[in-house]
Amino acid sequence: MTLSEKDRQLLSFLSENARIPTATLARKLGLSRTTVQTKIERLERDGVIAGYGVRLSDGFESGLVKAHVLITLTAKMLGRVTQELQAIPHVRSVYSVSGSFDLIAIIAAASISELDKVIDRIGEMDGVEKTLSSIILSTRIDR
């Protein structure tokens, strides 16, 4: 799907605040409210906008302990391990990567001990050959 410059601007505003009123978006984009509503509906229908979510406050996020967990899999276990990772609420995201590891999981927990338990759980999964974890000390850029 080809997006216009106005579509891209609209997506940028919605990414910052998905609850921004349509009238405010229209004013910022120099379009009518009806046109903006039509664009949003089209972007949803075409699957560009897949849904809306909650962005946690910096204060709440700063209280969490986060880590990158690099995971090496045994052969043909990607599907099974991905399903098991999906079932763990602490797993925020999982990426397939190139290099000596197969996956990177981003984990968030309330404490170091909770994080340790989650990492142990991942390491004990059938199909996980090894893991390497790095605790995130601070976030420099988050877009």
Automatic annotation (TrEMBL):
Superkingdom, taxonomy of origin: Bacteria
Keyword Nuclease belongs to the record: no
Residues spanning the signal sequence: none
GO cellular component: cytosol
Gene3D superfamilies: 3.30.70.920, Winged helix-like DNA-binding domain superfamily/Winged helix DNA-binding domain
A Pfam family that the UniProt record links to this protein: AsnC_trans_reg
GO BP annotation list: response to amino acid
SUPFAM superfamilies given in the database record: Dimeric alpha+beta barrel (SSF54909), Winged helix' DNA-binding domain (SSF46785)
Entry GO MF terms: sequence-specific DNA binding
UniProt-listed PROSITE patterns: HTH_ASNC_2
Keywords, in A-Z order: DNA-binding, Transcription, Transcription regulation
Protein name: Transcriptional regulator protein
Protein source organism: Rhizobium rhizogenes (strain K84 / ATCC BAA-868) (Agrobacterium radiobacter)
